[in-house]
Amino acid sequence: MLYFDPLYFLFAIPPLLLAMFAQWRVKSTFQSMSEVPARMTGAQAARQMLDSAGLTQVGIERVPGHLSDHYDPRHKVLRLSDSVYSQRSMAAVGVACHEAGHAFQDAKNYAPLTIRNAAVPAANFGSGIGVTVASVGLMLSSIPLGKVLLLAGIVMFAGVVFFQVVNLPVEFDASNRARRHLVEGNIISANEEQFVAKVLNAAALTYVAGTLQAVMTLLYFIMRFMGDRR
Predict the structure, then answer these.
(1) What is the predicted pLDDT for the residue at 36?
(2) Is 171 a known active-site residue?
(3) How far apart are CA 197 and CA 179, in angstroms?
(4) How confident is the model at residue 6 (pLDDT cuts 50, 70, 90)?
(5) What is the C-alpha to C-alpha distance for residues 203 and 5, in angstroms, rounded to an integer?
(6) Sign of the C-alpha dihedral, residues 70, 72, 76, 79?
(7) Terminal-residue alpha carbon distance, the chain
(8) Considering 61, 99, 184, 193, which one is annotated as catalytic?
(9) DSSP states of the chain as a string?
(10) Is 1's pLDDT higher than 50?
(11) N or C: which end of the chain has fewer CB within 10 A?
C-alpha cells in the first residue's frame, strides 16, 4: 500500500518539511511586515498601480479569509482579504500589488499566465482523482489492472505537475512587476522596497515547495510503475 511504503516517505518528507517551513515563514513574515506602516492601504496601492497602467476597468473587491487574495481573470477583478484590503502596512501593499501584477500579465497576454489558466481544469482533476487512481493501482499492483490504473493516475497527476511548473514563472513575474511599480509609482520609497521584498520572497518559497511536492509525488509513482525498488 502506498502509505506504508518506506520509499514513499523518502520522496514525500523533504518537500513536506519545506512546505511546512514555507507556510511558517509566510505567516511570520506577513505578521512582522504588517507592523511596518505604509502610506496607503493595500487596496489603495493596488488601485494606483492599476490606474497608472490604464487598467481602470479592473475592479477591487474585499473578500473574507486570511491571505485569500487573488486575481480573477474571468471577471477582471482583484479580490483582497480583510488584512490586505484596508490595512496600511508593507505586508498589505506587497500582497495587493502582487495580485495587481497578475492583472498586468492578463492585460499583456503574458504567455505563462495564459497556459496556467488553461491548465487549471486538468490540475483540479488530477490533484484528487489522479492520486487516488494511482494509489489504487499500487494496491492492485499484483494484477494487470493495477498497472493500468497506476499509469492512468500518473497521466492525470502529470497535469498537476505541469500546472505547478508553469505557475512558478507566473508568480515570480507578478512579484517582480509589483516591486518595480511600487517604487516607480512612488507608492513606497526605494528604502522601503526591502520590506515588501521580504513578504514576496516568503510567498515565493510556498510556490517552490508546492512544485517540489508535486514533482516528487509524480517521480515516486513513475518509479513504482517502472518497477524500480532501489
Answers:
(1) 96
(2) no
(3) 7
(4) confident
(5) 32
(6) negative
(7) 17
(8) 99
(9) -GGG-HHHHHHHHHHHHHHHHHHHHHHHHHHHHTTSB-SS-HHHHHHHHHHHTT-TT-EEEEESSSS--EEETTTTEEEEEHHHHS--BHHHHHHHHHHHHHHHHHHTT-HHHHHHHHHHHHHHHIIIIIHHHHHHHHHTTTSHHHHHHHHHHHHHHHHHHHHHHHHHHHHHHHHHHHHHHHHHTTSS-GGGHHHHHHHHHHHHHHHHHHHHHHHHHHHHHHHHHHT---
(10) no
(11) C
Q: Which triple of cell numbers denotes residue 15?
A: 518537500
Q: What is the mean pLDDT of the chain?
A: 92
Beta partners for 59? 77
How do residues 167-194 score in pLDDT, each as one tens digit? Answer: 999 999 999 999 999 999 999 999 999 9
pLDDT(24) > 90: yes
- Contact between 84 and 68 under an 8 Å Cβ cutoff? The reply is no
Q: What are the cell numbers at 187?
A: 507608492
Domain ranges across the chain:
2-226
Q: Percent of the chain having pLDDT more than 90?
A: 83
Hey, what's the cell of 59? 475592479
CA distances from 128 to 24, 65, 119, 124, 135 (A): 25, 24, 15, 7, 11
Q: What are phi and psi of 124, to 5 degrees?
A: -60, -40
pTM for the whole structure = 0.87
Chain centroid to CA 147: 32
Q: 70-72 and 77-81 as β-strands: parallel, antiparallel, unpaired?
A: antiparallel
Model confidence over 123-160: pLDDT tens digits?
988 888 998 999 899 888 888 899 999 999 999 999 99
